[in-house]
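Table S2 (text version). Query chain:
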Amino acid sequence: FFCDSFKVDVCDAEKEYVVQAEIPGVNKEDIEVEMEKGRLTIAVKKEENKEEEGKNYIHKERRTSAMSRSIYLADAQDSEITAKLENGILEVKVPKVEKVTATKKITVE
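Corresponding C-alpha cell output:
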C-alpha cells in the first residue's frame, strides 16, 4: 500500500489550487479530505481484511495502513472545494479567495 507517505503535487492555477495525490489501490471510502483555517489535509486509512471460508487458521494477521498529508494554502476559500478520485489519483480543487484590487478614491472634506 504505502511505504511511509504518498506523493502530493500542488499547482497554482490562477483562481484555484489544484492538488493531486497519488494513492493507488485506495477506495474513495478510505479517503478523508478536510479544510481548516487554510490547511488542506488528505488522510487515508486502509484495512486489509480478507474473509476466507473453510480455512482453520491458528494465526492470521490483518494490516491497517494510515497516512495523512497537510498543505497550507494561505488564500484558500473554505467553500466550493471539490475532490475526485480517478485511476489512483485524487484531485482536489480549492478556489482562492478573490482579492480586491480596485482602488477607491476617498474624498477629503
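Notes on Table S2: The beta strands are 8-13, 16-22, 31-36, 39-48, 63-72, 82-86, 89-95. The radius of gyration is 21 Å.
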